[in-house]
Amino acid sequence: MPTLNFTPNLRRHAETPAAHVNGATARQVLEAYFYKHLPPINCVRFKL
């Protein structure tokens, strides 16, 4: 199970605690994390 840790630069703008997240791909892991930890917004663009 991957553990996500974000840089201080990102944590300065949004609360992003470290977390264990399930997913088979990087995209699935990031989507699951953001769904759980960030408020919904109209558009999130991922660049992987």
Word description of this protein:
- Strands 1-2 form a two-stranded antiparallel sheet.
- The chain is built from 2 helices and 2 strands; from the N terminus they run E-H-E-H.
- By secondary structure, the chain is an alpha+beta fold.
- It starts with a strand and ends in an 11-residue tail after the last helix.
- It has one domain.
- The longest helix is centred in the middle third of the chain and has 12 residues.
- The model has no long low-confidence stretch (mean pLDDT 82).
Helix content: 25-40%
Neighbour order of strands in the largest sheet: 1-2
Instruction: Let me know the number of strands.
Output: 2
Number of domains: 1
| Poorly predicted spans | none
**Binned strand content:** 5-15%
What is the element layout, followed by pairings?
Elements: E1 3-4, H1 8-11, E2 19-20, H2 26-37
Antiparallel strand pairs: 1-2
Short description:
With 48 residues, the chain is α+β, with helices and mostly antiparallel strands.
Write a concise keyword list for the protein shown above.
2 helices, 48 residues, two-stranded antiparallel ribbon, alpha+beta, 2 strands, single chain
